[in-house]
Each structure stands twice: as C-alpha cells, then as structure tokens.
Design a protein that fits this description.
98 residues, mainly alpha, 5 helices, 53% helix, 10% strand, flat
C-alpha cells in the first residue's frame, strides 16, 4: 500500500501504480486526481482529513489485493518518459512558433 498524505508525491504515485500496490492519496491540485484518473486507480481523500485517511487505510488493508489491470497498464503509458518528453517538445515548439 502507498499512502500520500501531503501535497507532493506524483512520481511516487506512478511508481506505486506500476508496482501494482494499492494507492491512497490526498486530493490536492496538480497531480493525484489526474494520475489516479479521478479515483479509478486509487482512492482520494481530502487533505487534512485524518479520520477519512485512517478509515481508508483500514479498508485497504482488509480488502484482497487486486491484480493490475490492462486498463491501468494502458493508462500508465501516458506518463512514461517518451510520452511526457514528446509532450514537452510539442509544447516548446508551439511556444517558439508563436
């Protein structure tokens, strides 16, 4: 299980998903919601809501581990180095051509 209870940790979320572990993350701007596809691939909670976090941890510990799905594998491809690098190049080209 991977728990992200702070405002940073996007790379750790990706690594946890790729490893097939359950993910719980604070729902903070710029990262977890997109990486977890609005909760499809992990559980989101409100930052600072300790009771909700503790309940989610207990729930995840009691649930059987699920296999990593093909859907998740396809989703993670959008975050691989080649795809992200290509998006940066396209962005830079767009800026430079303006």
């Amino acid at each position: 299980m991977n728990v992200q209870a702070s405002v940073c940790g996007g790379l750790a979320l990706l690594e946890a998903l790729a490893s097939g572990v359950k993910v719980i993350s604070a729902d903070v701007p710029y990262g977890p919601t997109e990486i977890l596809n609005n909760g499809q691939f992990g559980v989101l909670f409100s930052l600072g809501d300790a009771p909700a976090l503790s309940n989610l941890i207990i729930k995840c510990l009691l649930e059987p581990k699920s296999a990593k799905s093909e859907c998740l594998n396809e989703w993670l491809k959008r975050f691989d180095m080649e795809n992200v690098g290509n998006r940066y190049v396209r962005f830079a080209e767009k800026i430079l051509s303006s």
